[in-house]
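ok trying again, last paste got cut off:
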Amino acid sequence: MFDYTKSEIVAGGFVILGLALLGYLSISIGGFKILPEQRYQISGRFSNVGDLKKGAPVKVAGVTVGKVASIKLADYFGEAELAIDQKVVLPKDTIASIATAGLLGDAYVSLSPGASDSDLHGGDRITHTEPALNVSDLLGRYAFGNPTQASPPSGAGGSAAETTPPTTPVPEKK
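nice, full thing came through this time. structure:
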């Protein structure tokens, strides 16, 4: 009834295999998961979330252990819900800080586990947080005043020696 040659069958097999591979790559690159990941939700309140976005990685010692599930405003603080892998156990005194990959890179949440005997569970809140650094604020403070202190008000009459950061002498080469 069907009279296909061997080369037609092989070509059809390659086409089907190519389409299946293309579909798999499309789904895996898009981040779609067939099986739901086992994660628990914890939250942290930050005075400034900076450029942190939903879906940003959550890392412990540089290793991704979860992602940011949502960000919302709560009592004038940025509250980030973090979805952490079930196999990762975090102590209650964990510190959450918002960091960037490089100088102008994407923001992520960095977790620094403490040494508490009790652990965080689903629905708990991280009490120790550090906000995102504002690069333009840092540059402004460095350019217009002492980077470690607030600059003196205009007309305060501070001398250049008071506002110049100390330098370390460099030994001369012989």
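cool. The chain has a mean pLDDT of 80. The beta strands are 39-46, 57-60, 63-74, 77-85, 95-100, 107-112, 125-126, 128-130.
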